[in-house]
Amino acid sequence: MKLSFVTSGQSHGPGIVAILSGLPAGIHVDRDRLQRDLARRQAGYGRSPRQSIETDEATILGGMRHGRTIGGPVSLIVENRDHANWGAAQSAWAVTEEELAEVAARRTRTVVVPRPGHADLSGVMKYELPDVRDVLERASARETSARVAVGAMCKDLLDAIGISVHGHVVRVGSVATAPNAALTAKDFDVLSDRQVGCIDADTDAKMVAEIEQAKKDQDTLGGIIEVRAFGCPPGLGSYASEELRLDARIAGAALSIQAMKAVEIGEGWENATLRGSKVHDELHYDNGYRRDTNRAGGLEGGMTNGEPVIVRIAMKPLPTLMKPLKTATLDTHEPAEALVERSDTTAIWAAAVVAEAVIAFELARAAKEKFGGDAIGDLVAAHQHYLSRIPWSPAAP
Predict the structure, then answer these.
(1) What is the DSSP letter of 313?
(2) Which of 294, 18, 10 is nearest to 151 (CA)?
């Protein structure tokens, strides 16, 4: 069975549900990491007050027993504690006026002012909906809580074959950290001590100041996140068919995250300005094939090439502003100001955690396709056999 997942649920509904199919049986699920990743998604300087309401926890509904996968689909829910404040306004079934009267008026009114930069306007037109609320509840990045839980389980699969995935923040607004091609997995350990998710402490502090200024200005900030995966053997993905190209899958997964607008693999944008002789990573043999540089970002021809996978993702500033932009109403088409909802100044660190999760899923999916196995022991054995066959061995993480 191929690895796949689906999520369901609204931002202020009872919870966000995910069903993850295709995990081999016998994977030990690291409960602490799962909960830690959910907590990391809620962290980061510049988040909204909602993060003090929600304390995300994944409740497993099926597919596991005693901490291990058992071969069936894993289903889970991350409950929305804020749902208690919305009640009848987010009921799946029709409700009475009396029931709605028990909910704060601002939560029950029909929203007719779409926000520039959001899914609002296209969503109501596409699905013939009378209320922007029906769009924004599902389009919300709250959905990523379930994707982070899915990604944490995929990391457990990757652990079994020596692959680790790490995300960090490299830019917030005008503040950026210096590129570091030599980062190792251990360098990411310091992130628990950072406020924005930047490895360099001085740059992290400057990012905090940048966020503070934007908050004072009632504005929002975007940035750039980077995800690195260590331990990937050559040959995950394929050149044989477009739907198997791993770089395409990773780029698609990255852009599926709310507010992400561009993807770079390796030194992609700079490489476009250089001659080929300055771009391609030369090969040599030293107990396996090696490259002294990694401008390709670990992916060539739609496949991993044995070097660390490096992906950078650009996040736009969030579209919900405390100084709302101009729009027009859905009912009268009159000029108006956009809806003001509770919003983050930036969610860049959360985005890095989500990016980790979706890239972990894509790597796990590619590994499952490459090595197969209904049980994790079979997958690991196939991986070990493959490594014994090819002239490559993983570098120190």
Answers:
(1) E
(2) 18
234 touches 305 (CB < 8 A): yes
Domains in the chain and their CATH numbers? 4-389 (3.60.150.10)
232 φ, ψ (degrees, to nearest 5): -75, 125
Separation of alpha carbons 143 and 92, rounded Å: 17
d(CA 397, CA 395): 6
- Quote the CA–CA distance of 90 and 108 in Å, as a whole number: 9
- Average per-residue pLDDT for the chain: 95
Instruction: Report the Cα–Cα distance between both ends of the chain, in Å, rounded.
Output: 30
Contact 184, 396 (CB under 8 A): yes
Contact 182, 391 (CB under 8 A): no
Contact 50, 183 (CB under 8 A): no
Instruction: Tell if the pTM clears 0.90, that is, is over it.
Output: yes
Alpha-carbon 37 to chain mean position: 11
Residue pLDDT, tens place only, 333-365: 999 999 887 779 999 999 999 999 999 999 999
Question: What is the enclosing helix (H) or strand (E) of 58?
Answer: strand 58-62
How far apart are alpha carbons 316 and 60 in whole angstroms?
33
Q: Is 297 helix (H, G, I), strand (E, B) or coil?
A: coil
Write the DSSP assignment of 222-286 as a string of letters.
-EEEEEEEE-PPTTSB-SSSGGG-HHHHHHHHHHTSTTEEEEEETTHHHHTTS-GGGTS--EEES
Question: Tokens 């790597």 appear where?
Answer: 363
